[in-house]
Amino acid sequence: MKAEKVIELLELFAENNIDTVVDGGWGVDALLGEQTRPHDDLDIAIPHESVPKLRKLLTDRGYADVPRDDTRDCNFVLGDEFGNLVDVHSYTFDEHGNNIYGVEYLPEHLTGKGIINGYKVKCIPPEWAVKFHTGYEIDEKDFSDVSALCKRFDIPLPQEYERFLPKINQNLFSYGTLQKEETQLKLFGRTLKGTNDILEDYKVVTTEIMDRVFLAKGNERFQKTLIPTGICGDFVEGTVFEISEQELSLVDEYEPKNYTRISVILKSGEKAWIYLAM
Asked: Does the structure show a pLDDT above 90 at 123?
């Protein structure tokens, strides 16, 4: 389903005072502000009282019911001859915001804001969009959506999605910002498991960064780096993190241009990668 058709339908609903919240794949892309993959349908949440109006609007435009095993009056699909599908989920709240009928949305589920091709929409907030993608048989498409949301909004990746992650086979020794959870979430979309270790015969110094791209991202001009001293008794304390080859490539891109990755042996005997200015 093309973005232009999605916007056309959402404008139609808005013109007819149907309070519409975008769910599903288009809801994810609305949060991300860009279309990340094709979508077969448009998932929407609307008040149940608006269902008759929505049905008339769509049937007048050639849409008809698409039979499904889970079809109910609050959960149904309408489609047209061109393959455009609208997956409707309706609900009813009482005066206290309690869900008393329909799909089990709560008011806090419907407070997100997003953009589809420049058109502002209501959608499921990111933390709830991630939760809504759990508790069922997930696939690669779900992983693509959830991992993108987790990375963009600093949300921990749900445990059931970890099986989709690339094989963890690289050790990275960190002595700086990569030890912070907020940096890990921003870079990898997950927090890392690590163990304390020591890099011997090195020390930490400060170096000035001239990489304009690195600085344009809001990073500080003066950064820590390692230098080998060859002096017995010099050492650097840090953390060894287990990451994938793909994640290691992300660190390559994250570090300033003049930083080089080399392999070292730590005090524990573990082999690990470090980054240092050249």
From this structure: yes
